[in-house]
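Record 1 of the preview.
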Amino acid sequence: MIEAENRDLSLQSDYKDLLRAFLENKSEQGLYDAQQYSKRLLENQISPEEMVSLHCAVLEEVFEELSVDIKASFSFLLEVMIGYGLAYREHQSLRDKQIELEMQIDVAANMQQTLLPKKMPQMQELDIGVISVPAGKMSGDYYYGVKSECGQLGVAIADIIGKGIPAAMCMSMIKYAIDSLLAYSMQPSALLENLNRVVEQNVDSSMFITMMYGAYDPNDHIFVYSGAGHEPGFYFKVSENKFTDLYAKGLVLGVSNKTQYREYKQEVHVGDVIVLLSDGVTECRVGERFIERQEITDLLRRYMSLPAQDIVEKVYDELVQLQDFELNDDFTLMFLRRQV
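->
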């Protein structure tokens, strides 16, 4: 209590000296000193209405007589600042909470980045490219790649229906669940069925996960894949110079623990391409419309002579430019082309 009184007296005395000096000289230095004094007010958490009372008290000391109207005007101003002060403190409280939330989101966003592969597994038979860009700080998209001891490749793209920190936590669970199911990494249907049971037991009923999972065997060049309600990919058959949809029917993960997933097979010839993507690619908006899937395949054709990683980056650059450089949804695109 005594410490607070001493603080108030010190602030009042210093303010009186500053005000007297300014009224006598009206200099730029006086204004600068006032700015520095305001920092002390912040450090001591002096509210706006307290500052008005301080100013009024100092004026009564500096000037022998103040008119009744001037004193009344300060009483009026004090009432205004009391209301303003309450609103200001509430604003500051909300601002502090917002800063804390943004810090938490930054931590979660950094955590998400550690969950994504630093680089996709490489193999002589395939040229692989992938790009994943969040629409905001947090992403609901996830991609995965694993190479078995036998040289087979497992790949996945998932979309978590939900954003923010819950999506990051869910992504973490998906990543470690897939890692624990390596025995099924070359069996897409079995992997999805096991993963589905994990999701159904551990994820809130308001959140769902779509996924496309596939396995490529370089020995027979067969791509086996299954889907859980995910956006269809594309398959490019070089002998026919034709794109077709890579569609896999299946219920989204987390709805029922008894769901079974069908496996599809595609023989992959030299030059053939497998494209997996999230709905952020197909739902790019140009003006008032969504782009057509053929527009995506046209872009893929345009850059087909480039390496896989260059292709996905070029397609992303084209599509984000069409949207005035502002993504409406998370964007993930994976491109796999048989080389030998």
